Amino acid sequence: MTTPTFFVTMKRSFADVPIEAGKVSTTEFLEAAESLVSLFDLLASAAFTVVQMDMNGNIKKIRDRQLANPVISATLQDIVLSEKVDKNKTATQGLLWLTRGLQLTAVALRKNIESTEELNESFTKAYNETLIKFHNMVVRPVFKLAMKACPYRKDFYAKLGNDYEAVKEQLLTWLAALERIVKIIQDFYDSGKYGKGL
């Protein structure tokens, strides 16, 4: 009997995050990011706790800003631009770091679904391509340990659902949406519209 996949049961998929005129809706984005963090539970390794804590901490920074200023926080870009005016960069930095974590996940899963690599290989390569350059010598070993602590590929995909073809199809849809949102946010930061000094 086929059971619902992880992607069907998650609170919000990145594929369901509204994007209008290149702006990403805050509430739905945060729900999708929280769902992604729960994906790390399936990796079943205490080593990933640090990754989850980091992402959850950054989600909280963005949500706190949204709750404090809901009128000017409809989109992620609105939050960053409002903080530029206020000369407060808490949520701006939180979004930057959260996006880096999302990129790590996207790169790792893209490498894995398009190959026969074990997860630890894909996550280690992704870490070396994305986050490592932003981490100091104290943080790097902690994250490297987490990347190596991934479960076997077959066990991970089995936890996503017992119909591999359905899992793969839904993962690719979710992944494409995640990659699109990461690119939108990164392009926004690269444009310099948020101000300097991050």
UniProtKB/TrEMBL annotation:
GO terms for molecular function: ceramide 1-phosphate binding; ceramide 1-phosphate transfer activity. Residues 24-161 form the Glycolipid transfer protein domain. Pfam families: GLTP (PF08718). Keywords: Transport. Gene3D superfamilies: Glycolipid transfer protein (1.10.3520.10). One of its GO terms (cellular component) is cytosol. This is Glycolipid transfer protein domain-containing protein. It comes from Lipomyces starkeyi NRRL Y-11557.
